[in-house]
Design brief:
Strand order of the largest sheet: 3-4-5-10-7-8
Number of strands: 10
Distance between the termini: 36 Å
Order of helices and strands: HEHHEHEEEEEEEE
Number of helices: 4
Structural class: alpha+beta
Shape: globular
Radius of gyration: 18 Å
């Protein structure tokens, strides 16, 4: 919402070519009572789903660039690397998945009609497609899994499709796909999770 408001103000006052950056963003419910909770969530599966959903929303609004805060291992706001081992943790895989979409090169239309589920897709010149499906909810009381069906507007998913899940117990873990007879994928998505789908 803020991105659209700022874009309108920039345009109104003659700055139509000015770029719009979102600096130092991360999961923060508030800077007062909820601050300790926010810091815990930043490096959790829910923090990863937030990172994924934020990038998906940012891609489709008038932002030119987003700067996640922050990448430095051992710092409070770093949700990407374990504080003791520097190994990648849940939010890292959201940015990794986004990088795979970026590498494909061309965003293609993707829509979701499921509340709290966002989808972003890209394709390369050879027709390889990537789909990022994220289920993120601000409500901490959402605990039930949800079945999500993913379909292609043109054609069907085939046997050359792979799915990597990130959720409460998985960090970008490949799982066997649930390919339906009609060529759609059926995903069993936990709260605050995301799936990266690749088809060659």
């Amino acid at each position: 919402d803020y991105a659209y408001k700022v874009r309108a103000l920039l345009d109104k006052y003659g700055y139509k070519n000015a770029e719009q950056f979102l600096n130092e963003w991360n999961y923060v419910q508030s800077w007062t009572d909820e601050y300790p909770h926010s810091v815990r969530v930043m490096s959790s599966p829910k923090g990863a789903a937030f990172v994924c959903a934020a990038m998906q929303e940012g891609q489709n609004c008038p932002l030119d660039m987003m700067m996640y805060y922050d990448w430095r291992p051992g710092t409070r706001f770093n949700g990407l690397f374990d504080a003791y081992t520097d190994a990648p943790i849940w939010p890292y895989w959201a940015i990794y998945s986004w990088g795979k979409l970026k590498t494909l090169g061309t965003q293609v239309k993707a829509e979701s009609n499921v509340p709290d589920v966002r989808v972003t897709a890209a394709r390369n010149a050879e027709g390889k497609i990537g789909v990022l499906v994220c289920r993120y909810s601000m409500d901490d009381n959402v605990v039930a899994s949800k079945h999500v069906t993913v379909s292609l507007a043109e054609g069907k998913f085939g046997s050359n499709v792979r799915c990597h899940f990130t959720d409460e117990v998985n960090m970008y873990t490949e799982y066997p796909i649930s390919l339906q007879p009609d060529g759609t994928l059926l995903l069993d998505m936990q709260p605050n999770s995301f799936v990266f789908i690749e088809q060659d």
